[in-house]
Amino acid sequence: MNEKVRDLLNQQINKEFYSAYLYLDFSNYFEEVGLDGFANWYMIQAQEERDHAMLFYTYLQNEDQKVTLDAIAKPDKEFSCHMDVLKAGLEHEKYVTSLINDIYAAAYDVKDFRTMQFLDWFVKEQGEEETNANDLITKMELFGTDPKSLYMLNQELGARVYTAPSLVL
Ligand code: FEO
């Protein structure tokens, strides 16, 4: 495998684990303010990010590439309101999309078609992640200021259940 492609794939393991850590912190925020449905939603988001990390890990292992695990950064965002958290989530997903695109571009440059095919799933997944983050912001804008509606939105998010990723390596 091309060295640059391998390094970027390896770094992505860390970025995905950081995403899990960040969303766990979001879940922690909502748990503390008593919005357990929002906490559930981000807890499941954190689980999905761990899955993403493991997909990159397994892909490199399957390709017989050396995996190096680095320290995971501290999630250090401070939030002044619930909406801040949701907006930070959307910003983060946009950032992750840019990372996936960068790996894809590097794989494209060296005609690494197998890595491109592996990344196809993530390209689609990032589209869904950004849509979900956007939808959450829209719902919060519509319903977040009225306590009764916020209660119902919290109930809705509490119903989210974890599903394993559709990509199996
Ligand atoms: Fe692993 Fe939310 O992107």
Walk me through the structure.
The chain has 169 residues and is mostly helical. It is built from 5 helices and no strands. 76% of the residues lie in helices and 0% in strands. The protein is elongated and about 55 Å long. The mean pLDDT is 97. Bound molecules: MU-OXO-diiron. The site of MU-OXO-diiron has 7 residues, from helix 1, helix 2 and helix 3.
What key attributes describe this structure?
mainly alpha, 0% strand, 5 helices, single chain, 169 residues, elongated, binds MU-OXO-diiron
How are the secondary structure elements laid out?
Layout lengths: L2 H31 L2 H27 L19 H28 L3 H31 L3 H12 L11
The protein binds MU-OXO-diiron (FEO).
What share of the residues lie within helices?
Answer: over 70%
Report the total helices: 5
Round the mean pLDDT to the nearest integer and report it: 97
Give the number of DSSP strands.
0
Structural category is mainly alpha
> What portion of residues belong to β-strands?
under 5%
Q: Which stretches are low in confidence, meaning pLDDT under 50 for 5 or more residues running?
A: none
Ligand list: MU-OXO-diiron
Rounded radius of gyration (Å): 17 Å
Rough outline: elongated
